[in-house]
């Protein structure tokens, strides 16, 4: 009974702190968007901008404080029992799976450098596309990649990769197909490297860009910068 109570207490506290963290991050993003909109409009609102900066700094400090509280609570609960340790391990694995934490480990790094000579009016269709990147992500996942990023944008379960005008959108962030693209993947570096070494993997890309890939003993991939929100999908209650 005591073990069950401690597990329920931990889940409630983590849930509350997680909600507060997500809320603070959402408010922070709104402030950042408002700041960018004001700057684009060229309106002379220096005082308002300074206020936004102060609020942003305060929110960043609050987010950091909440993250530390969550970590302290988890560390304290980890010493309670084996069942609690197992629960915390499951929670940590879930966070890595959803991209909520920074991760590091061995793997491969892929460099795609477009041929600038192809970016002419006669060759406007010859460039890296969303389908090329989605294909590579799929190949890396099949080779066992545990974490992937494109230009330091974390690829998570809900990530969409789509061409939008002259850019490619990934998690609502723009990357240019005319600039070098760096893909990082953490996993068994030898297996990932072998998978990328198959001739057909880069057959199409090699006609429009320079392709290089290498093993690495230490790759850092930052956490997903967005927030998860489910409006339609609901858990099934038995």
From TrEMBL:
Membrane-spanning ranges:
none
Q: Write out the entry's keywords from A to Z.
A: Coiled coil
What the entry lists under InterPro entries is as follows: DUF881
Q: Which residues form the signal peptide?
A: none
Q: Which residues form a coiled coil?
A: 49-83
One Pfam family this sequence matches:
DUF881
The domain of life is Bacteria
Q: So what family is this one in? A: Belongs to the UPF0749 family.
Could you tell me what this protein is called? Division initiation protein
Source organism of this protein record: Clostridium kluyveri (strain NBRC 12016)
């Amino acid at each position: 009974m005591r073990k069950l109570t401690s597990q329920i207490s931990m889940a409630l506290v983590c849930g509350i702190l997680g909600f507060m963290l997500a809320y603070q991050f959402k408010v922070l993003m709104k402030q950042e968007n408002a700041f960018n909109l004001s700057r684009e409009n060229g309106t002379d609102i220096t005082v308002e901008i300074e206020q936004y900066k102060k609020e942003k700094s305060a929110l960043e400090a609050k987010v950091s404080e909440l993250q530390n509280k969550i970590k302290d609570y988890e560390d304290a609960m980890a010493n309670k029992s084996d069942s609690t340790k197992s629960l915390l391990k499951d929670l940590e694995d879930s966070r890595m799976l959803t991209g909520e934490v920074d991760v590091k480990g061995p793997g491969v790094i892929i460099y795609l450098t477009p041929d600038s000579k192809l970016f002419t009016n006669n060759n406007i269709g010859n460039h890296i596309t969303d389908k090329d990147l989605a294909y590579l992500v799929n190949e890396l996942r099949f080779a066992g990649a545990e974490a992937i990023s494109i230009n330091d944008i974390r690829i998570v379960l809900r990530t969409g990769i789509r061409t939008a005008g002259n850019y490619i959108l990934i998690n609502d962030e723009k990357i240019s197909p005319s600039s070098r693209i760096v893909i990082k993947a953490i996993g068994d570096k030898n297996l990932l490297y072998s998978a990328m070494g198959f001739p057909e993997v880069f057959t199409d890309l090699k006609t429009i860009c320079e392709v290089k890939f290498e093993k690495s003993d230490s790759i850092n991939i930052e956490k997903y910068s967005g927030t998860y929100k489910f409006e339609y999908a609901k858990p099934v209650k038995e």
